[in-house]
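Project standup — Tuesday

K.O.: blocked on the structure for the chain from last sprint. Re-posting the sequence here as requested.
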Amino acid sequence: MVKLMSDYETQMLQAVQKMSGLLELLAEDKIAQRDGKQRTALLEIVGTNAAIQKSIFLMDGIRTQKEIYTETSINQGNFSKMVGDLHKAKLLVGDTKTPMLAISIPPNFFESNAETK
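H.V.: unblocked you, prediction finished:
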């Protein structure tokens, strides 16, 4: 039997998620320093294509590669190669069939890095 969360539990989970987001925002500079090499490698692998950049944010460890490339209209072969490159660079955790980024990046990661080039 599956137990559903109560309204209180749902509200608490949402509050914790908001606090986690705020803490990440406050710590972004330190996270960027810590993950600098990985973030540089990510930028090199992903490039400037907006659809491919969007796919990175969909790599949550739940969605399959097929779901991601279908949602973003990326060529399957190109997406598969990119996932392989990310895996080789140790930028993914878990199974590559349901890729998950190993580092955290802010929602404006690609835009802010495009401006600094």
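K.O.: great, moving the ticket to review. The longest strand covers residues 92-93. The longest helix spans residues 7-34.
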